[in-house]
Every structure is written in structure tokens, then in C-alpha cells.
Amino acid sequence: MPRVAGIDPGTVTLDVCGLDDGRVYLDESWPTADALADPDAFVSRLTEGGPPELVAGPSGYGLPLRPVVGVSDDDLRLAFLAAPDDPGGIGGIRSFARRLGSSGLPVVYLPGVVHLDTVPTHRKLNRVDLGTADKLCAAALAIWDRHERTGQPLDEISLVLLELGGAFTAGVAVRDGQVVDGIGGTGGPIGWRAAGALDGEVAFLAGQVSKDMLFGGGVEAVMRRSPDSAAVAVEAFLEGAVKLARQLLVPVPLADEILLSGRRAKDPAVRARLARELADFGPVRLLEGFGGKASQAAQGAALVADGLAGGRCAPLVDRLRIREAEGTVLDHLYVISPEAARRRLGLDGA
Fold it and tell me: Between 96 and 268, whose confidence is greater?
């Protein structure tokens, strides 16, 4: 059985989960800045006790499934959506991805929600962030967790996953064991650090929306600028999560569970509030996964790697149609053209 690992490059921490024959052998979480500053130490830790047969690497907004060999810098710009002169976002993530690529490890890049053919095209119009690759991985964990807990067949599982992360709030809709919709952190409600979807007029007034701007303006920003408004900011965060859950119930009306993942979901008060507000729908619970230190997304990435390597989770990967993912995150843009978006990323003529 395969020895694999999954990586979740979060805004606050970079997490890794390793599975050997389905058993956890690596369960780590580092401050993201520390991990990105010393990728060689990370690679060494990843290979202790023997190299993994497959690693689901940090994939950002995603690429159609492919091994790191042959992935160009242009591909990485599409995955992480950063212009050459824009230092914002998770600084150093592309360099980290390149270092993993040169390590000799069998790293693969995973798709994001927008790449999946199980998501109807009409839900992709003028959208890039329907959920980054790590959100897809968290959804994979949610599906597999239900399957393992209850014995329910994969093709009968329908649920909504809310990711309440250290920066963004996002969600994924699962119907019959497949991802059919998603709302990513830059298109969703206010997050703990990030503003979420920007009012179009706010974007106009800003003049230019930088990558750094997408990672600010959330609850923490409100608290810093106006401490007296802390309760208002938290209320916006909680109500936004409730609205997000109800919005995602539209494409999956038969979903019978809402699962919570991410850093803020660990707060009992947050879980209690969401359970109360969504009581008319059904149970709301924390996605526990394997427990331990690694995030739910890292655990899910390890499950996907296991499936891709022919392990127990192969039926999960097949059901999610990860191998069939295609296209780019720019394919469905009409407000601007895909060509203009490529130029913004420094991909003129590519």
C-alpha cells in the first residue's frame, strides 16, 4: 500500500499529513512564514523514514492534475495567480513550490473546484475562486469521513462543507459524492483576516486591487481600526457563514449535514452559533478527520494522494473525477477577457 503525503499551504500555517498504508505517520503544522523561509528543512522532514511515493503539493487555485516534472513558471503563475511584481498573498509560495519541484520528490499539483467537470459551466461564469485546491481536499476528507463512519456509499453522500479559516471563509457543495459548486474565500463572505467578495464599487474606488488587498479587510482589520466595532465584525463573520451555508444548499437541497473545517471552526462558540442558526436544516458538526495537528485540508490532500497512488481511497478520487479536471482558472471570464487576465499575470503571448 502507498506511502503518501498531502500539503496544505494555509495563510497562517503550512500543514502536512503523511499516510503509510492508510495510517498516519506524519502530522505536522508550522507557521507558514517559517516553512516557506526554509524549504530544505521541510523537504528533509517530509522524507524522514523513507521518501513518499506521491506528494499532493501546494496547488493554490489549482492546475489540471499533473506531476511537477514539466510544470513551468507560467503554470505556477496560473496556479497562484500572482503577477511578477505583486508581493502580496502568501509570500514565497511559488518559490516553495519550485523547491519542492526540484527536490526529486514525486509531487503532483491538484485542481481547484473550477477545474472539475462535475461543476456545471453556468456556475463558473466570471468566476475564478470557486474553491482553491485545498478546499477540494477538505471536501474529499468530508466525503471519506462520512463513508468510513457510516458505511454510506460514496455516490449517496451529499453535504455542505464550510471552511472557516484563519484568513478566508469559503464553502463547497457536495452532491452524490461529487463537488458540484463552491464559493471561494475571495468570493465569499467576510473572513477573519480577509474581506471576502468586494463590492464592485469598492474595487472601483480602490483603483487597483492588489493581491495583498485580497488578504485584508476582514474581522481583524475592523478590530484594529475600530476596537469598539469588534462585536459588529464578529457578527458579520458569523452571519456571513450562515448565509454561505444556505446559499450552497441551493445546488444540494438534499444535503443532510453541514461540516465545519478550518482554524475558526475550532471555537466552540462559533460552532454553537452556527448549529443554532442552521438547526432547521440539520446537524452541524466539526470535521474531525484523523485529529492531530495537520489541518483538514492536509489530511484530505493525503487521502487524494493515496487514491492517486492506487490505495484505499482510489474510489474517492475516481468519484471526484480529479483525473478528468481540465482547463485553466481563466477560462470562464467575461468581465475581462482571459487574454487580459494573462497579461495581468505577466503571461503576454503565452
Answer: 268
The residue assigned the cell 464553502 is: 171
DSSP for 140-178, please give it: HHHHHHHHHHH---GGG--EEEEEE-SS-EEEEEEETTE
Pure H helices in the chain: 32-37, 39-47, 73-80, 93-101, 133-150, 200-206, 211-214, 219-225, 230-248, 268-277, 296-308, 314-320, 338-344
Closest Cα partner for 56 from 233, 330, 306, 347?
306
Q: Tell me the pLDDT band of 237, cut-offs 50, 70 and 90.
A: very high
User: By C-alpha distance, which of 177, 158, 160, 185 is closest to 248?
Assistant: 160
CB contact set of 70 (below 8 Å; sequence gap of 6+):
none
Alpha-carbon separation of residue 349 from 64, 82, 249, 331 (angstroms): 21, 17, 41, 16
Angle at 12 between CA 194 and CA 308, to 5 degrees: 105
d(CA 176, CA 173): 10
Identify any residues that bridge with 66 across adjacent strands, giving them in sequence order.
Answer: 109
Q: If residue 67 lies in a helix (H) or strand (E), which one and from where to where? A: strand 66-67
C-alpha cell belonging to residue 112: 481547484
Query: Highest mean pLDDT range out of 9-18, 44-53, 229-238?
Result: 229-238
The band of 103, judged by pLDDT with boundaries at 50, 70 and 90, is: confident
Contact 51, 90 (CB under 8 A): no
Give me the domains of the chain, ranges plus CATH numbers.
3-344 (3.30.420.40)
Q: Which helix (H) or strand (E) holds 30?
A: strand 23-31
The angle, 0 to 180 degrees and rounded to 10, between the axes of the packed helices 230-248 and 268-277 is 50
Find out whether 242 and 278 touch, Cβ atoms under 8 Å.
yes
Position 104 confidence tier, pLDDT thresholds 50, 70, 90: confident
Predicted local confidence at residue 313, as pLDDT:
97
Using an 8 Å Cβ cutoff, are 105 and 46 in contact? yes
